[in-house]
Amino acid sequence: MHTIVTVQNIAIIALTTRNDLNAFLIKLLKVAEIIHHIKFSFRRYAPILRGCFFIYDKPYPNYPEDRYG
C-alpha cells in the first residue's frame, strides 16, 4: 500500500513539472513499478523457493544415523 501511494505522488509531480524533470520522474516511476512487482511476485513464490532450499538442507538432522554417519 505504501508503494502505491508513493507511485501516485511521483505521477502527480511528473504531470506538473518541467520536461527534463518529467523524464527523470517517469524513469523513477517505472523503477518503482518494477520493484513493487518483484516484491509482489517474490512474496507469492517465496514458500516454493523456501521448500526447494530446505530439500537441499539437512533433511533429517534428528536421526542418529545421519548425525554420526
Brief write-up:
By secondary structure, this protein is mostly helical. The chain is 83% helix and 0% strand.
Question: What does this molecule look like?
Answer:
It is a single chain. With 69 residues, the protein is mainly alpha-helical. It has one domain (2-68). It is built from three helices and no strands. It is rod-shaped, with a radius of gyration of 22 Å.
Topology:
Elements: H1 2-15, H2 19-56, H3 64-68
Number of helices: 3
| Mass-distribution shape | rod-shaped
Order of helices and strands: HHH
For the biggest sheet, the summary is:
none
Instruction: Please tell me the total number of domains.
Output: 1
Residues in β-strands, percent: under 5%
- What is the number of E strands? 0
Mean pLDDT across every amino acid position: 65
Give me the Rg, rounded.
22 Å
Instruction: Determine the structural class based on helices, strands and strand pairing.
Output: mainly alpha
Main features:
single chain; 69 residues; mainly alpha; 83% helix; 0% strand
